Amino acid sequence: MQAAGAVVERQLAYGEQWVVDASHLLAWSASYTAERSHTGCRHYGPAAEEAWVCRFTGPGVVYIQTRVPENVQNSTSHLSATSSAKPNQRGS
């Protein structure tokens, strides 16, 4: 399994619930319902009005990633442009 960041495994006991930002989901065996969260989500920025979350109910296991793939891509996109520049071509 590949992930952006670390992989976190959460074992849910019978009837235990856990709400997860849908952008962090990797795999699961627990039952769930998808919901819109109107409180916003910091992963979508301060202008976000809603985010999709999943409410899992045990028993089962849920695997999440600690980073959102889009955020990883955005935070590393400058590396390809910078790494190809030669030292004498960089500005001071």
UniProtKB/TrEMBL annotation:
InterPro entries: AIM24, AIM24_sf, Trp_RNA-bd_attenuator-like_dom. It holds the Pfam family AIM24. It is found in: Mitochondrion. Signal peptide: none annotated. The keyword Mitochondrion applies. The keyword Membrane does not apply. It comes from the Eukaryota. Keywords: Mitochondrion. Residues 73-92 are annotated as: Disordered. One of its GO terms (cellular component) is mitochondrion. Its main location: mitochondrion. Belongs to the AIM24 family. This is Altered inheritance of mitochondria protein 24, mitochondrial.
